[in-house]
Amino acid sequence: MWSQQYFEQALRTLPEHGYQLREQLRHGAFGQVFEVTKRGFNTRHAVKIAITNGRYTNTNDLQNEIDLHQKAANSNIIELQESWTTPRCVVIVMELAAFGSLQDFVESRKAAG
Description:
alpha+beta; Phosphorylase Kinase, domain 1; 3 helices; 5 strands; about 35% strand; globular; Kinase-like_dom_sf; Prot_kinase_dom; PAK3-like; nucleotide-binding; ATP-binding
């Protein structure tokens, strides 16, 4: 599948930026999220790899997400570490949430009653 080729290409850039791949956390139609470790610091992060379709709106939406993370410096918001692009993907490195995604948290609260 062509999209897998782009994901693999983006994954190969992780070591260049000092990250070691640990495991896949989530996947969807337009992206995948992985847990990585920062070499030399042994800190865990989440890496979102999103395929861009080459259209301005798709790329612009991803850039808006990055910009919002950079502007929203708050201890209650997941911190953006860094981001970069490959020919067909945007790679976003973020703080790893201890309890998973917001969706995971909401679902666990519903299940707990």
